[in-house]
Write a structure and sequence with these properties.
about 375 residues; alpha/beta; Aspartate Aminotransferase, domain 1; 2 domains; 9 helices; 14 strands
Length: about 375
């Protein structure tokens, strides 16, 4: 095969979107046939389904028994906003951002909550802020994995065990794909449509005992919308963490989430999921190591995301183009792959540097990523020949 000839093998599943992400292998709508439909989510069967989702979450993720797990509205965004609006302001805040979503939380803290005592710690795409500068006498807000930059924190070692403030971790593209150190995390949020490929609009809020203490001892100075309220009379509303959701959930989506959790259990739980992610990352790492035109956007291999893998175009001819031209070229790459039906939705995020973003989470098959790699070379050669 010459470099610009069309490859013979196509991925069995071309869904490499970074969210919503690919459904689990073998998925069928028949998996939802036992959904609790036409009944109140507050009925006994409805509550049982919601409680099952929480219990299976705890088992697969290894969440400690004394942590609370709640299903909340508005995806990861709703869960993280809920934490910010109910807990921040009690002490100073260090807030970190190195990609679109983390920087979005900074915007909310600065422009919406207007916190008085706040240190903003930012880095450009491809890098992390200096984690050694974080002050754990303060609250700390951060994303574990930068979905739009392909950069994650390397581990939890930088988080102090003797911290005085809370850690608020947006883990939406890390949960079920990276080993989260629960003893380091006080608030953890994620959405169903990421690593397990569930359906959208529902978020998960996981609270440590320290986070519960904050909720019960602190009243923020701003009004709280009903969907953000986690306490009543100064006490945690325990029902939220037993499946008594704040608003009406989609029981179809709940059933879909339960199905993904059962699939994860069948792999052996978290260890099985991590093994699949590692196998996928090995395919991408081998491709980049051999490529003469693509490289990881992440500057430090220790911080390389293993789910939302962001590639930049390192070819000298393309790198010499101005920013708009580079963006046009990268969109052409993604467009060629989409038109051939071999990779959907893998263009870089709109705020990120020009390039590609390939989801490599647990629901993606390594063999499909292996089949995609020659297509990346084909698309690059084709697009460059058109210049």
């Amino acid at each position: 095969m010459t470099i610009n000839s069309m490859p013979d093998i196509r991925p069995g599943n071309p869904n490499f979107s970074s969210g919503p992400c690919a459904k689990r292998p073998g998925y069928s709508l028949q998996a939802l046939e036992n959904a609790c439909l036409g009944r109140s989510h507050r009925s006994k069967p409805g509550k049982a389904k919601l409680a099952e989702a929480i219990d299976r979450t705890r088992a697969v993720l290894g969440v400690p028994d004394n942590y609370h797990i709640g299903i909340v509205p508005a995806s990861d965004t709703g869960a993280y906003e809920m934490a910010m609006w109910t807990m921040l302001g009690a002490r100073g805040l260090d807030i970190l951002g190195w990609e679109s979503f983390g920087k979005g939380w900074i915007t909310d803290a600065v422009k919406q909550l207007k916190l008085d005592d706040m240190r903003v710690m930012e880095a450009e795409y491809g890098d992390l802020p200096d984690l050694a500068q974080v002050d754990f006498t303060r609250d700390v807000a951060f994303t574990w994995n930068g979905t739009t930059s392909g950069v994650r924190v390397p581990n939890g070692d930088w988080i102090s065990d003797a911290r005085e403030g809370l850690t608020l971790c947006d883990a939406t593209s890390a949960a079920f794909a990276m080993d989260l150190p629960w003893q380091k995390l006080d608030v953890t949020t994620y959405s169903w449509q990421k690593v397990l490929g569930g359906e959208a609009a529902h978020g998960m809020l996981i609270l440590s005992p320290r986070a519960v203490d904050r909720l019960e001892s602190y009243t923020p100075p701003w009004p709280l919308p009903k969907v953000f309220r986690l306490t009543k009379g100064g006490k945690l509303i325990d029902g939220i963490f037993r499946g008594e959701t704040i608003n009406t959930p989609s029981m179809l989506a709940v059933e879909d989430y339960i199905d993904t959790l059962k699939w994860a259990e069948g792999l052996g739980g978290l260890s099985g999921l991590l093994a699949r992610v590692d196998a996928n990352m090995a395919v991408l790492s081998d491709f980049v190591a051999a490529s003469n035109w693509a490289d990881f956007l992440c500057a430090d291999p220790a911080n390389l995301s293993t789910t939302s893998v962001c590639l930049k175009i390192s070819d000298t001819d393309i790198a010499a183009l101005d920013g708009d031209a580079q963006g046009t070229f990268a969109k052409r790459l993604a467009g060629l792959l989409d038109a051939e039906g071999v990779a959907f939705d893998i263009g870089a995020y709109r705020d990120a540097p020009a390039g590609l973003r390939i989801w490599a989470g647990a629901t993606v098959e390594a063999q499909d990523l292996a089949a995609l790699m020659p297509w990346l070379d084909w698309a690059f050669a084709t697009a460059k020949a058109e210049l």
